[in-house]
Specification:
Elements (H helix, E strand, L loop, with lengths): L1 E6 L3 H16 L3 E2 L8 E6 L4 H15 L1 H4 L4 E6 H6 L2 H5 L7 E2 L20 E5 L1 E2 L10 H5 L3 E2 L2 H13 L4 E5 L9 H9 L6 E4 L9 H9 L3 E6 L7 H7 L5 H14 L4 E8 L6 H14 L3 E6 L17 H24 L5 E10 L2 E5 L11 E4 L9 E9 L4 E5 L1
Parallel strand pairs: 1-2, 1-3, 3-4, 4-5, 6-9, 9-10, 10-11, 11-12, 12-13, 16-18
Antiparallel strand pairs: 7-8, 14-15, 14-17, 15-16, 17-18
């Protein structure tokens, strides 16, 4: 029996897919990369936004075709979508060819069977599940449940196992990574594991980032000077409506502290444009803050009205055309910042993790780049560079989001 899996959404979903594959393999299934050969197909879905739900439905329809033209006899769905739409989803969408739903994986431990879906040199490690923040625009708490933590010893055992398998970069993830109460000691212990070269932190809620975590990041050389810090907005009024529990001044103090203690830090953030009640003045505050903070990496999204969220019922819903205009203006401003920062990298040396090799050259990531969401470094080398190899690169040219260099 063969099984084929599709993983949609964020890295947190991907770790669940890896566990699903591990459990299937332990049950005797062969994992295939060809849906035409699969007896069972599982689509692990995301339901965070309507666009994600639309992508899930489209993917389910595509996979259902293999029940007609392939070997597939069972099409199952997992992840957030069945939780979002409750158990009636399968019945109401039986026309799609869905045969059933799998409960969300939730928390697992280092003994849980798992087949890595990422390249050999990096791995995502989920340290918690669920969320207690209840941001007014977000449905995650109702889908994923309340915040639960893995034990530190369990996480360390998982990382040790990954290191023995050749993993060089550990990327800690959760719905709210900095809500993990023992994050600072977890980082310190991870840094002592032989074989691990880079440690990266994603999804750090600004309200929960402690001085201890910042100090450990500054002290431990293996923790890359990179932090994913989603601020979402900078207007006190909008932050209050979002239920983010911090102010613009709080963000200013935090960012200045981070940059003082970790001078080489690359800060990534995400912001939402067009939130209900966002006036031109509120948007102007956000734009001004982006120019001041000079984030190395930034993603901007237009607010999406999610039925069932408190924000969906708020007055002052912003027209779609205005949202798009504001997103474009923010990204233009950020592009100027990123271009200036990248130009300052010319002539500097960077450690680069090679990920792709071709006749035309090589490509990899620096400490400033997380997989799939950030930029890349194109590398010229006279000798062959193997994927997974760490090399020293001198930056020669800078583009808006990418760098070009040569091996020193």
């Amino acid at each position: 029996m063969k099984a084929y899996l599709v993983s949609l959404g964020c890295p947190k979903n991907l770790t669940d897919t890896e566990v699903l594959m591990g459990k299937l393999a332990a049950a005797g299934y062969e994992i295939t990369t060809n849906p035409a050969q699969a007896d069972m197909i599982i689509v692990n879905t995301c339901a965070f936004l309507k666009t994600a739900r639309d992508e899930a439905i489209k993917t389910i329809k595509e996979m259902a075709r293999w029940k007609k033209k392939g070997k597939c006899k069972q099409l199952l769905i997992a992840g957030c979508l069945p939780k979002y739409l409750n158990s009636s989803f399968v019945i109401r969408h039986s026309s799609l060819g869905i045969d059933g739903a799998i409960d969300s994986i939730g928390l697992f431990n280092y003994c849980t069977p798992r087949i890595k879906a990422t390249p050999p040199w990096y791995a995502y490690v989920k340290i918690a599940e669920g969320c207690n923040n209840y941001c007014s625009y977000c449905l995650i708490p109702s889908i994923r449940g309340k915040l639960r933590f893995r034990k530190t010893a369990d996480i360390i055992n998982e990382v040790k196992g990954l290191a023995k398998r050749g993993v060089k970069e550990i990327i800690f993830i959760a719905q709210d990574t900095t809500a993990y109460p023992k994050l600072a000691p977890l980082l310190s212990k991870t840094a002592k594991i032989p074989g691990i070269k880079w440690i990266r932190i994603m999804y750090a809620h600004p309200a929960h980032l402690t001085d201890n975590v910042i100090k450990v990041m500054a002290k431990e050389k293996k923790i890359v000077p990179y932090l994913d810090l989603p601020i979402q907005h900078a207007s006190d009024k909008i932050l209050g409506l979002m239920n983010r529990r911090y102010t613009r001044r709080d963000l200013e103090i935090l960012i200045l502290k981070i940059r003082r203690l970790i001078p080489k830090i690359a800060l990534r953030t995400t912001v939402i444009a067009g939130f209900p009640g966002e006036s031109e003045a509120d948007f102007g505050e956000l734009l001004d803050f982006i120019r001041w903070a000079r984030f190395e990496r930034l993603g901007c999204f237009a607010y999406q009205r999610e039925k069932g969220s408190p924000a969906s019922k708020m007055r002052g819903q912003v027209p779609e055309s205005v949202k798009i205009k504001r997103v474009n203006e923010l990204m233009r401003a950020q592009a100027r910042v990123t271009r200036e920062l990248n130009n300052k990298m010319i002539g500097r040396n960077l450690e680069v993790l090679i990920e792709r090799a071709s006749r035309g050259g090589f490509s990899g990531r620096s400490y400033m780049d997380a997989p799939d969401i950030d930029g890349s470094v194109s590398v010229n080398s006279k000798k062959y560079l193997s994927p997974g190899e760490l090399v020293r690169v001198r930056v020669a040219t800078a583009r808006t989001y990418d760098l070009i260099g040569f091996v020193t």
